[in-house]
Design a protein that fits this description.
29% of the residues lie in helices and 26% in strands. The chain contains six helices and nine strands. The model has no long low-confidence stretch (mean pLDDT 96). Bound molecules: S-adenosylmethionine.
Length: 219
């Protein structure tokens, strides 16, 4: 598809899928308008880049539905100066959106081939504020903690306690929590004296968070 068509298609995606469903954070809307999602999708699927759904990216993994990316980004309440950790780089698309919304992004992917492809896409668009590591993200990123926000883009059986430890005071953790097949999007906020509050958002379906503090690979 021609680049101009992609721009038009992306604008329609934002109007019909993002704004029409109630996303109102102007910075999130602008990031979704700016980041070329088709760069993060395999060429064969390029025509579907802006469709209202998740898409396969290989290795039985997916790039999330655009609305879900926007909603999770809005729930993080980013103003621009934050240090953010993402678990589950996948295609790198969500990391690029976060790179537009925050100062520094740290992202972890357990599957090497996906991580390498994501790095390439992020580099091609000049996202130098994204640090990418291959490994089990459920361990967090101790040398860079604390984070103002943490986003988990795979479904977890529970909120991993030590990810909360990696949050700064006032920090937000957004994570899908539930069974292997269905989860609820949850936001944990860490208050003064380390107390945490939990808010539940919509139901969702993510691939599994596999790792020490997630599901085991065979589950
Ligand atoms: N954020 C991604 C994007 O924008 O394309 C979509 C993420 S996809 C729904 C979930 C990703 O989480 C998969 O790529 C999967 O390999 C990864 N993942 C699962 N468990 C993980 C873990 N423990 N650490 C790091 N990545 C993990």
């Amino acid at each position: 598809m021609h680049m101009i068509n992609m721009d038009i298609t992306r604008r329609r995606m934002v109007e019909n899928q993002i704004v029409a469903r109630g996303i109102c954070d102007r910075r999130v809307i602008d990031a979704m308008l700016k980041v070329p999602r088709h760069i993060f999708v395999e060429e064969a699927m390029s025509a579907q880049s802006y469709s209202d759904s998740s898409l396969p990216i290989g290795e039985k993994q997916t790039i999330s539905q655009p609305y879900m990316v926007a909603l999770m980004s809005e729930m993080l309440q980013l103003a621009g100066k934050e240090k953010v950790l993402e678990l589950g780089t996948g295609s790198g698309y969500q990391a690029a959106i976060l790179a537009e919304l925050a100062d520094r992004v740290y992202t972890v992917e357990r599957i090497r081939s996906l991580a390498l492809r994501a790095r390439k896409a992020l580099d091609s668009l000049g996202y130098l504020n994204v640090n990418l590591k291959i490994g089990d993200g459920t361990d967090g990123w101790a040398t860079e903690a604390p984070f103002d926000a943490i986003l988990v883009t795979a479904g977890a059986p529970d909120v991993p306690g030590h990810l909360v430890d990696h949050l700064a005071v006032g920090g937000r953790l957004v994570i899908p929590v539930g069974s292997r097949s269905e989860q609820t999007l949850v936001r944990i906020t860490k208050g003064e004296n380390g107390a945490v509050s939990r808010e539940d958002s919509i139901g969702c379906r993510f691939v599994k968070l596999i790792g020490r503090y997630g599901w085991n690979g065979e589950d």
